[in-house]
Amino acid sequence: EQRTPVLELAGVRAGYGAIQALHGVDLVVHPGSVVALLGPNGGGKSTTMKVCTGLLPLNGGELRLAGRRVNGLSAQEIAKLGVCAIPEGRGVFPNLTVRENLWIATGTGTDLKKLEAVAYDRFPILGKRRNQLAGSMSGGEQQMLALSRALATDPAVLLLDELSMGLAPMIVTQMYETVAELVAGGLSVLVAEQFARVVLPIADTAALMLHGRIVDTGTPDEIEGRLSSEYLGG
Ligand code: ATP
């Protein structure tokens, strides 16, 4: 017996004006699992993420959250239903300190002290840098901050787009180890990565996307065996 997926795309079509970018995308994220969305630049990974956050409307198919059809809901409404994205480029405020960035994430009801304690316990370096401007930190530290901010919202599903971009391989490994720990604690994650090798170790399912279509889906082992080296990355 399967529990209801936290996130589901069924035959999703979407695009930009006359440009159709997604041609019927099917994807399922089960609770407490990691789905890796792989494929080259321009394949449609970011567009898929935008559809999941409500930033881009569907023009076909269905988007479902916890079994509920949410086509047409605003990005704000979808965020309220627990979809939280760390966009490409991380989305931290460079001219605010680490604390201020966390404070912004608290919204109403969450207490900053508690939030800081959780963030600094997970990433001690953020504690050391609490009064430093986020923009002055390394890419890896900013990614830790972005992840801490996202987790503050206690998301039903976390969307990560090219988490590895611009980061040293060791930092990427560390970030994905953290994600794996969070998943072991029940978090559900959809992660888009151009290079499979960094994310396959923590994925439950992998899907290869080309020209706006999922062309292959399987376990990480199956997909790794079928991927050409250009999609695996160094
Ligand atoms: P990347 O790694 O570059 O983010 P991707 O797999 O995420 O690649 P998308 O960014 O989703 O790919 O792009 C899918 C298609 O949609 C591409 O053909 C791209 O040119 C097109 N596209 C993306 N954004 C826009 C936009 N704002 N306006 C018009 N076309 C766009």
UniProtKB/TrEMBL annotation:
Residues covered by the ABC transporter domain: 7-232
Signal peptide annotation: none
UniProt keyword annotations, A-Z: Amino-acid transport, ATP-binding, Nucleotide-binding, Transport
Key word Mitochondrion present: no
GO molecular function: ATP binding
InterPro entries linked: AAA+_ATPase (IPR003593), ABC_transporter-like_ATP-bd (IPR003439), ABC_transporter-like_CS (IPR017871), BCAA_Transport_ATP-bd_LivF (IPR052156), P-loop_NTPase (IPR027417)
Protein family membership: Belongs to the ABC transporter superfamily.
Name of protein: ABC transporter ATP-binding protein
UniProt source species: Actinocorallia libanotica
Lineage, top ranks: Bacteria, Bacillati, Actinomycetota, Actinomycetes, Streptosporangiales
